[in-house]
Design a protein that fits this description.
The chain folds into two domains: 105 residues, Aspartate Aminotransferase, domain 1 (Alpha-Beta Complex); 242 residues, Aspartate Aminotransferase, domain 2 (3-Layer(aba) Sandwich), CATH 3.40.640.10. Helix content is 42%, strand content 16%. Bound molecules: 4'-deoxy-4'-aminopyridoxal-5'-phosphate.
Length: 363
């Protein structure tokens, strides 16, 4: 099977094998070494001297942790969203009683820093800004460094980031850019099965934690901090995924994050060039902000998106994703995180070339 959805991604055999190791005492010395070793190396990937917490849960748990640990009901926040996952930040913060000003950009476009600047100028009492680094639903990556320059550099607001499909795949510099909380998840560029979420947490985020009044229990970072001091997780961790994480981090850092980022940029470009050579168009309005972890392709007029996606699966064993929410039937998406090779993409493109006419495509 050629699994080309934007997460979960194919997990290398040697990492998968780690998960068959026998259990250990999660409150014993071996786990302490595992936890400390993982946390130290996670910090290197996030490029932070601050904390990175390991949460057993999916990426949404880390998004929710970023919100409930820094905000109080009634706090005004701006959510700059460019897609379906961006909208989730509004849903989470609203569920906990924040007063969310949703700044929506058209799907297929990136955040316009001038519009964000204007919104921040109009709302002086905003406490925090929430943004998605890489919007998996539209295949668009925001220029997070520039966005952070506006939020932190010009307005000095708390900045909460969904880096679920970006961290470990495309460059991110948590401390240098002033990102206060960055959420990510194991089933993406980390080359792991789903089930772990990671959350960076800055000094400034800790100050916000001290004042925050949103309810929290499982996701309370204070519990993670207290237990970390004695080398333990607050709750029973996914020991098997921690074994796998240990190996995945070794592999990422042995290769070097610079090389990992270059590989993703190269395979992203290779995929986009290939898609265009089939006579298809990228959904990203401008290639300068097209994502290097997932390519969203517009469904041409007359093509049945569901027939395309199911034809790829049944005839070629190539698994791609359709569009979500309002994008259903309008796009399909090809994931290329982790160790995606040119031959994985060539096989995908070849299958698309053969299936398109069956799904109604005529050039
Ligand atoms: N945000 C982004 C950008 C994502 O790609 C995803 C998962 N596709 C999520 C949030 C939600 O993460 P999860 O499904 O792991 O909770």
């Amino acid at each position: 099977m050629n699994l080309r959805i934007p997460g979960p991604i194919p997990v290398p055999e040697d990492i998968l094998r780690e998960m068959s190791k026998p259990m250990i005492n999660h409150r014993g010395p071996e786990y302490k070494d595992l936890l400390f070793g993982a946390a130290e190396r996670l910090k290197r990937v996030f490029e932070t001297e601050g904390d990175v917490w390991i949460i057993t849960g999916s990426g949404t748990a880390a998004m929710e942790a970023a919100v409930v640990n820094t905000l109080s009901p009634g706090d005004k926040v701006i959510n700059a969203t460019i897609g379906v996952f961006g909208n989730r930040f509004t849903d989470i913060a609203s569920a906990y009683g924040a007063d969310v000003v949703t700044l929506s950009f058209p799907f297929g476009e990136a955040i316009d820093p001038d519009a964000l600047r204007a919104a921040l100028g109009d709302e002086p009492d905003v406490k925090a800004v929430m943004v998605t680094h890489n919007e998996t639903s539209t295949g668009v990556a925001n220029d997070l460094e520039t966005v952070a320059g506006v939020v932190k550099g010009e307005f000095d607001k708390l900045l909460l980031v969904d880096g679920i499909s970006s961290v470990a795949s495309i460059p991110i510099s948590t401390d240098a850019w002033g990102l206060d909380a960055v959420a990510t998840a194991s089933q993406k560029g980390w080359m792991l099965p789903p089930g772990l979420a990671f959350l960076s947490f800055s000094e400034r985020a800790w100050k916000a934690r001290a004042e925050s009044k949103m309810p929290k229990f499982y996701l309370d970072v204070e519990q993670y901090r207290k237990y970390y001091e004695i080398g333990q997780p607050p709750y029973t961790p996914s020991v098997s995924l921690m074994f796998a994480l240990d190996t995945a981090l070794d592999q990422l850092l042995a290769e070097g994050m610079g090389s990992v980022y270059e590989r993703h940029a190269a395979i992203g470009q290779f995929t986009r060039d290939g898609v265009r050579s089939l006579g298809l168009e990228l959904f990203a309005r401008d290639e300068s902000y097209a994502s290097n972890t997932v390519t969203a392709v517009s469904i041409p007029d007359g093509v049945d998106a569901a027939a395309l996606v199911s034809g790829l699966r049944t005839e070629h064993d190539v698994i791609v994703s359709g569009g979500q929410a309002s994008l259903s039937g309008r796009i399909f998406r090809i994931g290329h995180m982790g160790r995606t090779t040119e031959s994985d993409i060539e096989e995908t493109l070849d299958a698309i070339r053969q299936t398109l006419p069956i799904a109604g495509f005529s050039r």
